[in-house]
Amino acid sequence: MDFFLLIGIVLGLGSVIVGMMVKGANIEVLLNPAAAIIILIGTSAAVMNSFPREEFLKIPKILGALFSDRKKYNAVEIIEDIVEMSRTSRKNGLLSLEQLIEGMDNEFMKKGLRMVVDGIEPEYIREVLEGEIESLEERHRLGASIFTTAGGASPTLGVLGAVVGLIGALGNLEDVGKLAHMIAGAFVATLYGIFFGYVICHPFASRLKRKSQREVKGMSIILEGILAIQSGMNPQSIENKLVGMLEPKERIKFQ
């Protein structure tokens, strides 16, 4: 579980509640079922209308990936593993990697190394692994676009909710107390819409893009490392090549 993400959500919600209390607003107005229905169901409808059924049904899986804190592709650890495997292969031959493959958790690396051990041409290995990377990018692009769509729809639906609330308020002009309560409730939908759009959905889309970039970088390092091992490149040369793909702060361990 990514607790840092949960902390961000709680902070965002807390800022709204505390801000209302500081301004002297009654936070009970936030408990507005009508506003919640308009925003949540309306946003869901907007997403359903924007994506095919099979893509819409992937939302639970996308949320699982979003809240997961599993670091599947740690670039530094990947380079260390590849350099160690290059030493093994130079000493005992490429076939010696076969016994290492079985204990690996990284399916992408296992797939590439199996092709190396089987003597597949490097051009074909690159083509297959680059296809895997493109497929991953497309899956992540879908998840980000779903949240971007939801983030664009919810603030507009918040305005719609305010209009609906004001229409209801205009039907109770004779009761000043009820009128004031309904006007306050009308703008709760706008608050929900803006919060859901700009504190939840758009940030979720950005987070998915960052996770995708991290995974793609890790997979690219694996691809280049595997091909370097196959070519018989010196372990130190492999390390130098792969470290060049890291961010400056990640290179400290190799200095």
Automatic annotation (TrEMBL):
It is a multi-pass membrane protein. The chain crosses the membrane at residues 29-51, 142-167, 179-201. The keyword Zinc does not apply. GO terms for biological process: bacterial-type flagellum-dependent swarming motility; chemotaxis; proton transmembrane transport. It holds the Pfam family MotA_N. GO terms for cellular component: plasma membrane. The keyword Zinc does not apply. Residues 6-93 form the Motility protein A N-terminal domain. Keywords: Cell membrane, Chemotaxis, Flagellar rotation, Hydrogen ion transport, Ion transport, Membrane, Transmembrane, Transmembrane helix, Transport. It is found in: Cell membrane. Its main location: membrane. Residues 103-219 form the MotA/TolQ/ExbB proton channel domain. PANTHER family: CHEMOTAXIS PROTEIN MOTA, MOTILITY PROTEIN A. Belongs to the MotA family. NCBIfam families: PRK08124.1 (NF005997). This is Chemotaxis protein MotA. It comes from Clostridium cavendishii DSM 21758.
